[in-house]
Design goal:
A hairpin with an 8-residue loop joins strand 10 and strand 11. The protein folds into three domains: about 50 residues, no CATH class; about 240 residues, no CATH class; about 70 residues. It is α+β, with helices and mostly antiparallel strands and about 425 residues long. The protein contains nine helices and eleven strands. It is elongated and about 135 Å long. Helix 2 packs across helix 3 and helix 7 runs antiparallel to helix 8. The chain is about 40% helix and about 15% strand. Keywords: Coiled coil.
């Protein structure tokens, strides 16, 4: 048994489905690989392939014996993860994490394949256990499966085509991995658009029902810092069908005795039914940077032979897509700046309207004060004139007039114009 230092396990929770490169790196240089494998329930040889795929340096043979003898060499640093490279290990087929940066036109992309031929898994991590999830489905009349789980690879398929689509996806994903390109679910922190899927072989304006299954996040392949969205779906054809057990069945697959129409007028239903042939849809997941290409099987299985040419095309198109993204980013930035200027102009105009309204309200109030002043002066002049005229009357008559004048003043109230002026609010300067 190898001598090992008395080092506790890192603080990683064993219940976590995803283990980071940093955690695996610290463990590799703290305890032997056999102990790490026991911790996660995998063999040391399998774990070695994980370390290779994540580009994590691990101790050479005999390292722990050297440590026990006090001759252990210094550990090399953990290399920085390149854009699109895996930065975590999915223990249970959970969504993989990848290093992400803004897309840039790559240089010499794909000219040097990653030397991991001996370490490629038999099944891509994104597809582990996926058949089980496709068994847990919602009802679908036309045969397309609608799994209850949405956080998995973007595959749209019928029950009869499931093995075919998983096999093709596995070959495509592993070939991309062999070339050094990671395939994973898009980062949940970064919004990526998904190209809609129309599974019909021939374009039609007919409404599709029921709706197809959609993943929670797009499946993407990282080519340098450029991402392409990947969807694999089974092509359908519009054929006569009959409802059998709440599902549509091709009329041609039924015995001749059961092909008769159940309707009095002999009308036969038709629907879009899966054909077993696949389509690979590769698209731009970037906002407004439109790019999409589709490869359709002429017969089941012939897409596998096109994988090499598909990857070659994507490598050639990666710089093109990166440039599209940059053009759209600059356009969006210009539109955003224009929007901000328009908002500022609307704010300025609203502020000017408010200012003019305040001025107009103040002017109207001042005019009301002036009108009040004119009215006050007119009333005061009227009372003064009556008082002067009353002085010319006899004592008894003047007394009656003055009493009536007093009551009139009481009825009119305060005639002080200054008090009205003090209530006026001048506009703010």
């Amino acid at each position: 048994m190898e001598d090992t230092p008395n080092t506790p396990f890192p603080a990683d929770d064993l219940s976590e489905d995803v283990v980071t490169r940093e955690s695996l790196y610290e463990q590799a240089w703290s305890i032997p690989m056999t102990k790490i494998g026991e911790r996660y329930g995998v063999s040391s040889s399998y774990l070695a392939r994980v370390y290779t795929s994540l580009n994590i340096p691990r101790p050479p043979v005999g390292y722990w014996a050297q440590v026990a003898a006090g001759k252990g060499k210094a550990r090399p640093p953990l290399p920085v993860a390149q854009p699109g490279a895996l930065i975590a290990w999915s223990r249970n087929g959970a969504p993989l994490k990848v290093s992400d940066t803004l897309p840039k036109a790559p240089r010499k992309l794909g000219r040097e394949a990653v030397n991991i031929n001996a370490t490629l898994p038999r099944k891509h991590p994104l597809l582990l256990g996926i058949e089980e999830h496709f068994q847990k489905v919602r009802k679908s009349e036309n045969g397309y499966l609608r799994p209850t789980k949405r956080s998995m690879a973007d595959l749209i398929v019928s029950r009869t085509g499931l093995a075919h689509v998983v096999d093709f996806a596995n070959q495509l994903y592993l070939t991309l991995m062999k070339k050094g390109f990671s395939v994973a679910l898009s980062d949940s922190a970064t919004h990526m658009s998904r190209e809609p899927v129309d599974h019909r072989e021939k374009a039609s304006k007919r409404y599709i029902y029921p709706a197809l299954w959609q993943p929670q996040r797009p499946t993407v392949v990282y080519m340098g810092s450029v991402k392409f969205g990947l969807t694999i779906y089974e092509i359908s054809e519009y054929v006569p069908v009959k409802s059998v057990g709440k599902q549509y069945v091709r009329l041609s697959s039924l015995p001749a005795s059961q092909r008769r129409s159940p309707f009095p007028d002999g009308w036969i239903m038709s629907d879009d039914m899966p054909t077993g042939r696949l389509c690979l849809q590769v698209y731009s997941p970037y906002y407004r940077a439109e790019w999409v290409h589709r490869w359709i099987e002429d017969k089941p299985g012939d897409l596998v032979g096109k994988i090499a040419s598909i990857i070659k095309l994507l490598i050639a198109e990666a710089p093109v897509l990166a440039n599209k993204v940059e053009v759209e980013r600059e356009r969006s930035e210009r539109e955003h700046q224009k929007y901000l200027l328009e908002c500022e102009e609307r704010r300025r105009q609203e502020e000017e309207k408010r200012r003019l309204k305040v001025v107009q309200d103040s002017r109207d109030q001042l005019e009301s004060v002036i009108q009040t002043w004119a009215k006050v002066n007119s009333i005061r002049a009227f009372f003064d004139d009556i008082e002067r005229s009353a002085q010319k009357l006899g004592h008894d008559e003047r007394k009656v007039i003055m009493e009536r004048l007093t009551k009139a003043k009481e009825l009119v109230g305060d005639l002080d114009a200054l008090k009205h002026f003090e209530g006026w609010e001048p506009p703010a300067s």
